[in-house]
Every structure is written in C-alpha cells, then in structure tokens.
Write a structure and sequence with these properties.
19% helix
C-alpha cells in the first residue's frame, strides 16, 4: 500500500465500508482520527449515533500469518484459544498490515 488511505469499492458488498488505511503510520492514525471526528459530528447533527470500526487485514507476506492458518488450530478442540483458521476470522490490529474502516450506526 503506497498511500496511507485507499477507497476501493470493487468486490465490496458492505455499504459500511469507507476504505483501507495504513493504521500504523502517523498519517494513517490522523486519517482514522479525522474519520471518527467527522462521523461523531454527523451523528450529533442528525441525532443518530455512529461508530467507526477498524478491522485488520493480513496483507502479503505478513510474518503473523501463521497465527491464522489452519495448521495453528487444533483439530480436536472447538474452543481452543487460538486466533483464527476460520473464513470469518478477525485479524487483530497488532498483527494486521492494513486496516479496513467501517462505519456502523449505533442503536439506542
């Protein structure tokens, strides 16, 4: 990822997706902070609550990929305390190379 923020609507099914950010860089952190401020402002104007969520993406050649592989998950236990090996897994932000930004409406 050459730019700190990228919006790519190709192959996206979620209407909550805002873009991908390099969340570990200084510029990326400023972008995330600006997104959170903007959606908080919009929520105050509209009388609705929004929350901005970062979801980690693995990226190419990530040294933490082994934590999320099928080999890392024991086959005998459904409740093993490992990170992944599912199609619906969540990548921790500490392990992620990039993060997708989503905005969701809070229900009061």
């Amino acid at each position: 990822m050459n730019t700190p923020y990228k919006y790519n609507s190709d192959n996206r099914t979620s209407t909550a997706y805002l873009g991908t950010v390099d969340h570990k860089s200084r510029t990326g952190k400023l972008i995330v902070e600006a997104m959170r401020r903007e959606w908080k402002r919009r929520g105050n104007l509209e009388g609705k609550g929004y929350r901005v969520v970062l979801k980690g993406r693995m990226g190419k050649d990530n040294p933490n990929a082994f934590k999320y592989s099928v080999a890392a998950k024991p086959k005998w236990s459904w409740s093993a305390r490992t990170f992944g090996a599912h199609s619906h897994q969540t990548i921790r932000l500490d392990d992620a190379a990039h993060a997708d930004i989503y905005v969701y409406r809070r229900y009061a």
